[in-house]
Amino acid sequence: MKRGDWLIEEQTPSYQTRWRVKDVLHVEQTPYQLLRLVEMEDFGRALVLDDAVQTTVGDEHIYHEMIAHVPLFTHPNPERVLIIGGGDGGTAREVCRHESVTKVDMVEIDRAVIEACKKYLPETACGMDHPKVNLVVGDGLKWVADHTDEYDVIIVDSSDPVGPATGLFNRAFYENVYRALKAEGLFVAQVLSPFFHQDLIRDVYGVVSTIFPITMPYLTVVPTYPSGLHCFMLGSKKHSPLREGIGKPSWPTRWYTPAIHRAAFELPPMVAELVEPAGVQTGQ
Ligand code: SAM
After folding, report:
1. CA-to-CA distance for 175 and 188, rounded, in angstroms?
2. Mean pLDDT of the chain
3. Strands across the sheet with 133-137, in order?
4. Of 97, 224, 101, 105, which is closest to residue 157 (Cα–Cα)?
5. Per the count of CB atoms within 10 A, which of 198, 208, 223, 245 is most buried?
6. SS3 state of residue 210
7. Is the pLDDT confidence value at 247 over 90?
8. How far is CA 87 from CA 14, 27, 44, 160, 196, in A?
9. 139 lines ligand 1 (CB under 6 A)
């Protein structure tokens, strides 16, 4: 791939997204995935893993604010946080803004992603240099299985369920997440798009809702993700994301607000029907 080419991401044999490439900054076949750092004409520098856009300078703030602040404001006093994946550092950057957080374990399987993002995506990778962050190169699957009753919030900021992330979307993993959480803990995972991944969202909800007493999908927009509509799944042992008294940022945000936090859980019927059979809990 070279300047002027199209970066193409295929969702189905008849649906592709493509971005005009301004520059190719780094290409590496790691032990886990094809790693590329490119500069797009419209969204700036971007991390691409196995042909899937992971994060871009142009819209990363939306995803990272919504995957971090929704769970961290839902928990009344989050101190210990685990991030699985998140090798671009953006989630860690947002988590560390919360004064109550004392320590973040961040477990990213691919050292090459960390190093490439530190070199080409300083805007997000700065999160990995925060003094609160304990950066571990390892498999999140194993880490979660080896830790019990330790975390207030767990954030699964993984790539899509292929390659190293395949095991991060099944019952065994979510049961280990439950055990790794403290008594009032909660977790969030990115679960792709309601337009292209309905079965995944339905299946994840069906499993998580048998493990956690509170299970609620929420939505945001991420222009550079498939269809632009992106879903997260929240599973909580005690606290509802719509509870009274949820705090608000004391720092400037570019997307997250308390109103957007609540609105994210108002599911349009086409999304609610993916989870209704299991009895979706919404704001109504
Ligand atoms: N925001 C992106 C998304 O929604 O697709 C995710 C970005 S982040 C770069 C995804 C990271 O998950 C990748 O760096 C990948 O190496 C990491 N990952 C995948 N499977 C993993 C596992 N089993 N343990 C730890 N990290 C994993």
Report:
1. 14
2. 95
3. 133-137, 103-108, 80-85, 151-157, 181-190, 229-236, 214-221
4. 105
5. 208
6. coil
7. no
8. 30, 16, 18, 14, 24
9. yes
Distance from the first to the final alpha carbon of the chain: 49
3-state secondary structure at position 278: helix
CA distances to 84, 95, 124, 140, 163 from 110, rounded to whole Å, are: 11, 21, 16, 11, 12
Calculate how far, in angstroms, residue 93's C-alpha sits from the geometric centre of ligand 1. 16
65 CB-near residues (< 8 Å, 6+ apart): 94, 253, 254, 255, 256
Six-digit token string for 60: 């990363």
Q: Is the pLDDT of residue 284 over 70?
A: no
Catalytic positions are: 157
Q: What is the mean pLDDT of residues 204-213?
A: 97
Domains (range + CATH), the chain:
6-56 (2.30.140.10), 60-241+252-278 (3.40.50.150)
CB of 56 within 8 A of CB of 44?
yes
**Nearest residue (CA) to ligand 1, atom 5:** 159
The dihedral formed by the CA atoms of 180, 184, 190 and 191, expressed in degrees to the nearest 10: 90
CA dist 9 and 68 (Å) reads: 26
In single-letter form, the type of residue at position 127 comes to G
Q: From the CB of 165, is ligand 1 less than 6 Å away?
A: yes
pLDDT digits (tens, 9 = 90+) for 253-275: 999 999 999 999 999 999 999 99
Residue 164: pLDDT band with limits 50, 70, 90: confident
